Amino acid sequence: MAKTVSAAFGRLSDGRTVTKYTMENRGGMRVSLLDYGAHVQSILLPHSGGPLEVTVGFDDADGFENRSNYQGAIAGPYANRIGGGRFEIDGVEYRLDQNEKGVTTLHGCGEYTHTLWETAVADDGAVTFRYVRPDGLHGYPGAIDARVTYALGDDGRLSIRYDCVSDRKTYINPTNHTYFNLGGFDSGDILSHTLQLNASRFTPVDEYSIPTGGTLPVAGTPLDFTAPHAIGERIDADFGQLRLTGGYDHNFCIDGADGTLREAASAECAATGLRMNVYTTLPGVQFYAGNFLKGGLGREGKPMNRRCGFCLETQYYPDTPNRPEFPSCLFDAGEHCVSETVYEFVRI
Ligand code: GLA
Q1: Where along the chain do its domains lie?
Q2: Which among 4, 82, 159, 200 could disulfide-bond with 125, CB atoms 3.0 to 4.6 Å apart, if both were Cys?
Q3: Pocket lined around ligand 1, Cβ cut-off 6 Å
Q4: Which residue's CA lies nearest to atom 4 of ligand 1?
Q5: pLDDT tens digit string along 23-53?
Q6: Is 250 known to be catalytic?
Q7: Which atom of ligand 1 is nearest to the CA of 70?
Q8: Residue 122 Cα distances to 1, 44, 75, 255, angstroms
Q9: Is the pLDDT of residue 92 over 80?
Q10: What pLDDT digit, counting tens, does each position of 54-68 carry?
């Protein structure tokens, strides 16, 4: 149960106002959201030296509009990549805009991220963002009615619930792309954080980060986080899959995924004594170590340098539309795609 207040956050380049919604729980944890992109703008945790900001991102609307690498964003309608920017449904081919290297489609071409969503605040403080996309935008089929609900519990759990329904059969796969740094947004890189992933397999990729097919065991590789390891311990190992991606940027297959809420990951920062547990109903989680951040200006005008934040993007596997062996995210007209992911913050 949270207390939620709203305030103007800034303006987009076309003059439209961006509104910020801040949920606060009884413990003094504050999560701020934006109607633009349904972003998580800020997560402030009560801490000995004063509130600690554990997301890497922006404090101005221009940052979210023009300098974004999906910081805090909702990505969709299909998060992650679609190989060759194409797929078929019932024998009909769909050709999508290819917004990455002119070859792949990444994060729905930023469609969800750069949209102003409608907002509703419930009596319990939960915030629901809604956006109905036009069928065919970026070549992608389906007028999808998407709702994303954020709720904050007094137990430090931030829940994100997705409910999407299309007017025609299509693939649906939204995610949240928050970059976390449990040492604080300006504390340097995340290499000393320890990470555990409840995933004994991953989806290997090619040089375009497109799955090459099937899954492989993580055992005996630097992608084995079934026991906790520092992120930096093996990130630059001479290992083919890491060389292709410049560090961790892989989809991990969550062990035992069965559509119920399961623990997928947990990360810890010894310096602050904070742990984040991630639970999801989804089958995959993309662990991205911020390898492509290049010092762009973020919060308080400070540079967001390489690997200053990491993402745990819960999702269906990348390129599922072209990979019949992966768990399906093809939904019939009128069939709801519902999922939930929880980021839980605890003191160790
Ligand atoms: C995802 C991808 C990364 C990168 C970021 C955005 O996490 O997996 O390769 O594209 O988004 O910069």
Answers
A1: 3-347
A2: 4
A3: 69-70, 106, 209, 249, 286, 288, 292, 311, 313
A4: 292
A5: 999 999 999 999 999 999 999 999 998 999 9
A6: no
A7: 6
A8: 10, 21, 23, 34
A9: yes
A10: 999 999 999 999 999
Neighbours of 164 (CB within 10 A): 24
Q: Give the whole-angstrom CA distance, residue 338 versus residue 119.
A: 19
Ligand 1 atom 10 nearest Cα: 106
- Closest C-alpha to ligand 1, atom 7: 288
User: Could you report the per-residue pLDDT of 173-191, keeping only the tens digit for each?
Assistant: 999 999 999 999 999 999 9
Question: Which sign, positive or negative, has the C-alpha torsion 241, 246, 247, 251?
Answer: negative
Average pLDDT, the chain: 98
Say which CATH topology domain 3-347 has.
Answer: Beta-galactosidase; Chain A, domain 5 (2.70.98)
Decide if 325 is catalytic: no
Cα of 288 from ligand 1 centre, angstroms: 7
